[in-house]
């Protein structure tokens, strides 16, 4: 449903203007600018402006945190999946999200920030992760809707990141998008099955769609005019498509999928605009979004507490891995002597 060719015309209309960056090293800066203008890749050993490095660490670490916190809402349903088949699929999906977090932490580490520093920022509540994971999964239809809409929104946002100017992030995204595509399809297929079931099952799907739709639209971030990072990130080739353009693409792709599924998207203003060749849609509740991003969503405290507990409970695994690696190291020194 979503492919690597998911590109739209790069558009920066409506974005905040970018002040010229302070030049720290004119020659290296010129080489960097030339590479960016030529659509080349910046690699870890290359010189890069401090702001570029900081923007990448911020975005990639937030993305990594989103993947591992994103394991929690669906993880709750592994023990309650309705069949062995659904359970096996869900275990694989949740495990994939953990793997995405690992690729992303590794990509961020190439910029000189350690995984311990990033995790400390997450666990102390300083770092952000996607707003979407602060809402509860109330029933099995929520698991299907997360696959269909949350993974669908995530793919829409991540496909352009496969062309990000920072090599390690772009390469991680190619693998992640392939797996997210499976995640999206399994969710949609689970919902199709429920929509072929009883009236109660159909009502569960519609209820889940009603609760998740607007939250998924907010996942793309604030409107372009209120997005402080977009203009510079687009000039650097980190983001390729603006928040609003991606949101629009996602809506246009999802409306026909909702029709096939037989559900109504909960927006009375959602309609095709012949002139724009896009769907018009209603107003997103940005106050609710910011309240959630700032820690006051329905599950923020629970998610963070569960994540910190999982990290602490896993200390023995990290200790054992370190002890094993130091034993191997000592053995190789002894063998070499
Ligand atoms: N939630 O100026 P912008 C997934 C913050 S992965 C929380 O527009 P930017 C897989 C933003 O950080 C989902 N905060 O910022 C999965 C910034 O705050 P800061 C995650 C948000 O970076 C599926 C401030 O607002 N995907 O779902 C959100 O240029 C199922 C101003 O915003 C990624 O991270 C939000 N929704 O654009 C896993 C993709 N939106 O740092 C499990 C990579 C904005 O100044 C189950 N990231 N903020 O304190 C991106 O593409 C970008 O970072 C955006 C935000 C588009 C998210």
> For the terminal residues, how far apart are their CA atoms?
58 Å
Based on DSSP secondary structure assignment, what is the total number of beta strands?
Answer: 2
Main sheet: strands, sense, barrel: 2 strands, antiparallel
Structural class assignment? mainly alpha
Output the strand order for the largest sheet: 1-2
Number of helices: 13
Radius of gyration: 21 Å
Averaged pLDDT: 93
What share of the residues does DSSP label as strand, in percent?
under 5%
Shape: globular
Order of helices and strands: HHHHHHHHHHEEHHH
The percent range for helix content is: 55-70%
Give start-end ranges of low-pLDDT stretches. 1-12
What compounds are bound to the protein? Phenylacetyl coenzyme A
Explain briefly what this protein structure is.
The protein has a two-stranded antiparallel ribbon.
Keywords:
337 residues; mainly alpha; 13 helices; 2 strands; disordered N terminus; binds Phenylacetyl coenzyme A
Description:
This protein has 337 residues and is an all-alpha fold. The protein is 63% helix and 2% strand. The protein contains 13 helices and two strands, in the order ααααααααααββααα. The chain has a two-stranded antiparallel ribbon with strand order 1-2. A hairpin with a 4-residue loop joins strand 1 and strand 2. The longest helix is centred in the middle third of the chain and has 29 residues. The protein binds Phenylacetyl coenzyme A. The site of Phenylacetyl coenzyme A has 28 residues, from helix 2, helix 6 and helix 9.
């Amino acid at each position: 449903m979503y492919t690597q060719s998911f590109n739209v015309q790069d558009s920066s209309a409506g974005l905040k203007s970018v002040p010229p960056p302070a030049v720290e090293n004119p020659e290296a800066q010129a080489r960097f600018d030339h590479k960016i203008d030529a659509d080349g890749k910046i690699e870890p050993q290359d010189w890069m402006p401090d702001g570029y490095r900081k923007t990448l660490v911020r975005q990639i670490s937030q993305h990594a945190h989103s993947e591992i916190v994103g394991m929690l809402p669906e993880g709750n349903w592994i023990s309650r999946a309705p069949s062995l088949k659904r359970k096996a699929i869900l275990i694989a999906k949740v495990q994939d999200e953990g793997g995405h977090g690992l690729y992303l932490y590794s990509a961020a580490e190439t910029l000189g920030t350690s995984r311990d520093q990033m995790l400390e920022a997450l666990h102390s509540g300083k770092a952000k992760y996607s707003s979407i994971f602060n809402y509860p999964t109330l029933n099995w239809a929520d698991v299907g809707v997360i696959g269909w809409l949350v993974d669908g929104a995530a793919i829409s946002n991540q496909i352009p990141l496969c062309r990000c100017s920072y090599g390690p992030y772009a390469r991680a995204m190619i693998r992640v998008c392939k797996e997210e595509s499976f995640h999206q399809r399994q969710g949609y297929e689970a919902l199709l099955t429920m929509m072929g079931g009883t009236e109660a099952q159909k009502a569960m799907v519609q209820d889940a769609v009603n609760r998740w739709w607007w939250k998924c639209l907010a996942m793309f971030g604030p409107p372009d005019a209120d997005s402080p990072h977009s203009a510079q990130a687009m000039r650097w080739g980190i983001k390729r498509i603006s928040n609003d353009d991606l949101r629009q693409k996602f809506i246009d792709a999802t409306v026909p999928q909702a029709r096939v599924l037989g559900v109504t998207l909960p927006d009375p203003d959602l309609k095709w605009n012949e002139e724009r060749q896009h769907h018009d849609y209603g107003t997103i509740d940005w106050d609710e979004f910011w309240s959630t991003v700032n820690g006051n969503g329905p599950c923020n405290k629970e998610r963070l507490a569960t994540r910190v507990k999982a990290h602490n409970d896993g200390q023995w695994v990290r200790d054992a891995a370190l002890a094993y690696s130091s034993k191997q190291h000592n053995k190789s020194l002894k063998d070499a002597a």
